[in-house]
Amino acid sequence: MLKVATVEWIQQISAPHKSYRHTDKKTPSERKQARTASHLGAFSDLRKHGLVENGGKTSGGDTLRNLTPMGLKAASCELGRPVGEMGGSARGAGRSGASHPMAPNDALLALLRPKPDLTQLDGEPVEVLAAAQAAADPPDGLGPSPPTRRGQGRDACTATTSAYDNWDSNTSTNARILRTTEDNTHLNDYNFNDVTSSAVNNSCFLVRIYPDYEFKGVPVTLLPGESISFNRGNGFNDVASSVQFLPYCNQHHQRGGPVLWS
Ligand SMILES: [Ca+2]
Ligand SMILES: [Ca+2]
Asked: What are the structural domain ranges in the chain?
């Protein structure tokens, strides 16, 4: 439960799909206004009923809303917890820019990672895709590192195997990269299904990239140090759906630990 929040906060958590709407609006503030309008209205209603009050501003200038004692009581009913366990109402948090309560809020957002399903966006304009990608990536420094990043060239793949959205390791255009050293049966887990256009194997394993989920279909195999670009015509562009690592080197090499995203 958030005792203090901004309108945008509530929107990000409760309606993440709106984070990439309204990309036709000219300025960031116009976009924010459009996507948070309904939540602003909801806050007004709650304020009218005495459940929420305005409580100062964040350091970024957004108005903070916090639960009143009556709001806390209502939340305790909702959560089935005694009011005595609900703690204070975090009144006055806004006086210091609310940096303390907002830090747990950031952590919460990172853990929840509400994000749009990028596989549903085929055919959308570039600016919509970019906004959706930004909404799908968790905030810097919190939660798990993003499974994908943007980057170019073979050097972007360090001791891992990388799948690139564009040909020739994204050399011509900076684009998304998936870096991993773990088997993955469904690349859509990382919003990377049917997008791989080139791959680099800088791991110590033999890597098989399959056109279908769960290591099905006829794979492309990369030995350690090999790379491939699926330029138009070879039939493997934008089809990879799973990836498998097989032992290759004699040297001892640990696998199955944390995935080496960056
Ligand atoms: Ca691609
Ligand atoms: Ca596929």
From this structure: 4-118, 145-246
Kindly report the CATH number that applies to the domain delimited by 145-246. 2.60.20.10
Cα 215 to ligand 2 centroid, rounded to whole Å: 10
Q: Quote the ligand 2 centre to 146 CA distance (angstroms).
A: 22
Nearest bound ligand to the CA of residue 194: 2
Q: What is the pLDDT of residues 68-79, one digit of tens each?
A: 888 888 888 878
User: Nearest ligand to the C-alpha of residue 237?
Assistant: 1
Tokens of 210: 């399959």
CA 49 → CA 43, 62, 144, 240, distances in Å? Answer: 10, 22, 39, 53
pLDDT digits (tens, 9 = 90+) for 95-130: 655 566 666 666 676 666 666 677 777 777 777 777
Ligand 2 center from residue 40 Cα (angstroms): 42
Distance of alpha carbon 198 from the chain centroid: 23
Q: Is the four-CA dihedral 157, 148, 260, 203 of positive or negative sign?
A: negative
> What spacing in Å lies between the alpha carbon of 26 and ligand 1's midpoint?
29
Of the ligands numbered here, which is closest to the C-alpha atom of 240?
Answer: 2
Q: Is the pTM of this model over 0.70?
A: no
